[in-house]
Amino acid sequence: MTDFTVFQREISRLLPHIKFYFNEPMAKHTSFRIGGAVEVMAMPENADQLADILKVSKLLDTKPAILGAGTNVLAPDEGMKGLVVCLKDALDAISQVDETHIRVSAGVSMTKAAVFAANLGLSGLEFAHGIPGSVGGGVYMNAGAYGGEIKDVCVSVDVMTFDGVLHTYTSEEMGFSYRHSRLEDEPGIVVSAVFSLTEKPSEEIRAYMQELAAKRKASQPLDKPSAGSAFKRPVGGYAAALIDGAGLKGYQVGGAAISEKHAGFAVNLGGATAEDVKNLLAQVSDIVFERSGIRLEPEVRIW
Ligand SMILES: Cc1cc2nc3c(=O)[nH]c(=O)nc-3n(C[C@H](O)[C@H](O)[C@H](O)COP(=O)(O)OP(=O)(O)OC[C@H]3O[C@@H](n4cnc5c(N)ncnc54)[C@H](O)[C@@H]3O)c2cc1C
């Protein structure tokens, strides 16, 4: 018989209507395919369930970690105590609000949101097609690509506090800047976002999305587990160019390496640990700093 921890027993007793996953490997939920088991994982089906989970977590003195699609997270090898709330595929509603606005729940993938908009003949989310994260994760860190970012199209965001209270923030109140929003300084959970788009023929939108997909395929190591760009764009340069310039393509620590195809990506060659990735990022940052005087900071969120 399995021995449950006190936390596992209590949370399932207090929330019998919610399905929990015990000792769930984080490696199954992160695009790096790295990370030990979390004590409890929850995938709420709607905002009410999310609020229930948050209230009970508070009662049990636990602050949950929030996971979207896990495409920008490096989870610890030793696993995690407590609760991870995974919103990917959980909060999954998407709807048209009026002619030019759509509302998208946090768990919807950025690609699905872009395709939904394209099918309605609404332009503005093309950049998000191909970013493998969820809308919640994208809003949290103002994801962007090919000249577009969430900030350009987002008009408002419904955010739940860790007390289970909902607030609506305007785009200005979200404090978006390069790969940043207010939620990094003032914790809260994206429940849904409203995007303002412009009318355009669907075929034109799709053609542009296909062009961007081809660019990604040609330049990025999409066949290997990664978390996308390993470093933020530094002031005064591009991370990939600085890393390439330092001769670090293929540079390897354990099972983690700088991609041969795109120097901005750290990839898992198979069996990489979180320690390997952290050491790789630290060593690459040091070597680039010695050579250029520019300090690279990780873009991937290290848990
Ligand atoms: C192959 C590849 C290509 C990529 N290309 C790009 C790119 O072009 N542009 C780009 O910007 N990124 C890119 N990324 C990185 C990643 O997809 C984005 O950062 C994405 O926005 C992360 O979303 P996620 O749902 O996976 O977030 P996660 O990785 O699950 O989480 C990232 C952070 O967001 C927080 N978070 C997640 N959901 C919520 C929520 N609902 N409320 C509050 N906080 C939340 C988490 O706590 C965590 O701190 C790429 C990644 C890969 C693997």
| Estimated radius of gyration | 20 Å
Ligands bound, unique: flavin-adenine dinucleotide
Class derived from helix and strand content: alpha+beta
Structurally, the number of domains stands at 3
Largest sheet: 5 strands, antiparallel
Strand order of the largest sheet: 6-7-13-11-12
Number of helices: 8
Can you give the mean pLDDT?
96
Please identify the oligomeric state.
Answer: single chain
Helix content: 25-40%
Question: Which of globular, elongated, flat, extended, rod-shaped describes the shape?
Answer: globular
How are helices and strands ordered from N to C? HEEHEEEEEHEHEEHEEEEHEHEEEHE
Separation of the first and last Cα atoms: 31 Å
Could you give the count of β-strands? 19
Strand percentage: 25-35%
The top-level CATH class of the largest domain is: Alpha Beta
- According to CATH, what is the topology of the largest domain? Uridine Diphospho-n-acetylenolpyruvylglucosamine Reductase, domain 3
Low-confidence stretches: none
Q: What is the name of the CATH architecture of the largest domain?
A: 2-Layer Sandwich
Could you please describe the fold and organization of this structure?
The structure is a single chain. The chain has 303 residues and is of the alpha+beta class. It folds into 3 domains: 81 residues, 2-Layer Sandwich (Uridine Diphospho-n-acetylenolpyruvylglucosamine Reductase, domain 2); 111 residues, Uridine Diphospho-n-acetylenolpyruvylglucosamine Reductase, domain 3, CATH 3.30.465; 82 residues, Alpha-Beta Complex (Uridine Diphospho-n-acetylenolpyruvylglucosamine Reductase, domain 1), CATH 3.90.78. The protein has 8 helices and 19 strands. The strands form 6 sheets. It has a 5-stranded antiparallel beta sheet with strand order 6-7-13-11-12. Strands 1-2-5-3 form a 4-stranded mixed beta sheet, with helices on one face. The protein has a 4-stranded antiparallel beta sheet with strand order 15-18-17-16. The radius of gyration is 20 Å and the shape is globular. It binds flavin-adenine dinucleotide (FAD).
